[in-house]
Write a structure and sequence with these properties.
This protein is an alpha+beta fold. Helix content is about 30%, strand content about 25%.
Length: about 130
Amino acid sequence: MSIIENGERIGWTLKGINSIEGTLVHVNIESEIRMGRYGIDLELFASIVEVELDPNQSADAYVIDEIGFISGMHLPFDRLLDAYLDSDKPVIAIVREKSTEILASIEPLVDTEILCVHTNSVDEISVRIDDWLI
């Protein structure tokens, strides 16, 4: 979720399903790892990945939101993503369009469909995902 102060975005929070949450990127985070003017709390990201993407958890499907710049800096995430994509469970992953390396690794998978999400296509894609999971 965006952190807005005086009408300006100054960061984002990240909240996992299993109650880990915090500020992931912020203009005031001191970090060598940066995304433009934002410092990144990679330790928070790693904590959430470790808890939320536990491959030993039972699930009917996996949903991973916002794969992109930050996830590419955390090697365990890449290994977990590969494991999920190789599993027999459906994976719904929201991938940044500019994450060409990740998209290139996903695109050749036989059981994969890549949908471009835009403001005017969200409802259509929601219906397709519902149909796909049912």
